[in-house]
Design a protein that fits this description.
Radius of gyration: 33 Å
CATH topology of the domain at 53-136: Multidrug-efflux Transporter Regulator, Chain: A, Domain 2
Low-confidence stretches: 1-41
Mean pLDDT: 76
CATH architecture of the domain at 53-136: Orthogonal Bundle
Distance between the termini: 109 Å
Strand content: 5-15%
Shape: extended
Helix content: 55-70%
Length: 313
């Protein structure tokens, strides 16, 4: 190994074994304080989102009127002003969701305001909003897209049919939005279009989505129950300390890529098994026929057709 010291270009050579012995001896004499702390996995940062007042109300499943009323009461802060336009962010969305959950539990707006104020004075509101963001934020970075009827016809080609649009709307794969259609997952729609062009009916693909969704939802619920059972339930009905709320939010953010990797690995494994089971025999038959093609006769080997005798007249 070559070590360069200073600008003078001093060089020395050291074998790998000597270097290992020297490094281990230095670490042994330096003590525990010299050992660098292990860095944990990086916590993904929540995506930066911006809403107009209409988009905020629609995402929070409330009305613009309610948003403005909550703002007048001081339940949510005013938006950031950019010229004549008000821009809302993730904090506004989290507050609206918390307000909605408290309203469904029977709290009044006055009591909710007092509760938010108490949390804010106790320095726990920021951690609560961070935890709500970790729980309720979309678990994908895929942005929805809108399509016109002409766009869908171009995407699916001759395989397009209005017959399956109602079923797609029912499943949320393609929602009717005014005169257009809103796809929460454009990648899923594109995959469906490619498979439909290959000859697989869209009706059958949507039924596969139903089956897939049921299994994925069950697995996701079991994963979340693990977090609830082993982490959240230790606090009982008590209020989580601000520090613990922050740690729980970080844990949920860490779960996102881990769950995605686990699901991808299991889907890949299942697809390999299914493909081998259902298509393996057909592939074997094709390979066998390619190895032993049927015998064919050439034109030179073919016998001339037998002619009948000419009758003497």
């Amino acid at each position: 190994m070559r070590i360069r010291a200073g600008r003078a270009g001093y060089h020395c050579r050291m074998t790998q074994s000597r270097f290992k012995r020297l490094r281990s001896s230095k670490l042994a004499t330096a003590g525990d304080e010299a050992k660098p702390a292990k860095a944990g996995p990086a916590v993904p940062k929540p995506p930066v989102v911006e809403f107009s007042v209409g988009e905020l109300a629609r995402t929070a499943r409330t009305s613009v009127r309610n948003v403005r009323a909550y703002q007048d009461r001081g339940l949510i802060p005013p938006p950031e002003r950019r010229g004549r336009k008000g821009v809302y962010g993730q904090e506004h969305l989290s507050r609206l969701r918390i307000i909605g959950q408290l309203l469904t539990r029977g709290y009044t707006l006055n009591s909710i305001g007092e509760m938010l104020q108490a949390w804010d004075q106790g320095h726990g509101l920021a951690e609560l909003l961070g935890l709500e963001t970790a729980v309720s934020s979309p678990w994908t970075d895929e942005a929805p897209a809108h399509y016109s009827l002409v766009d869908l016809v171009r995407m699916f080609g001759t395989r397009f049919s209005t017959r399956w649009l109602a079923r797609a709307d029912e499943l949320g794969v393609l929602k009717v939005d005014g005169t257009r259609f809103r796809a929460p997952s454009p990648r899923m729609l594109q995959a469906g279009a490619e498979l439909a062009k290959a000859g697989i009916p869209m009706d059958d693909l949507l039924e596969v989505v139903v089956s897939l969704r049921a299994n994925v939802e069950r697995a996701a619920e079991e994963m979340v129950l693990l977090v609830e059972r082993h982490i959240v339930e230790r606090y009982g009905d008590e209020m989580l300390p601000a520090e613990d709320m922050s740690q729980l939010g970080d844990l949920i953010w860490r779960l996102r890529p881990l769950v995605e990797m686990a699901v991808h690995a299991e889907v890949a494994r299942a697809m390999e098994i299914a493909a081998s089971s259902h298509l393996g025999d057909r592939l074997g038959n094709i390979l066998e026929k390619m190895q032993h093609p049927p015998e064919t006769t050439t034109a030179t080997d073919a016998k001339p057709p037998r002619r009948g005798r000419r009758s003497d007249r």
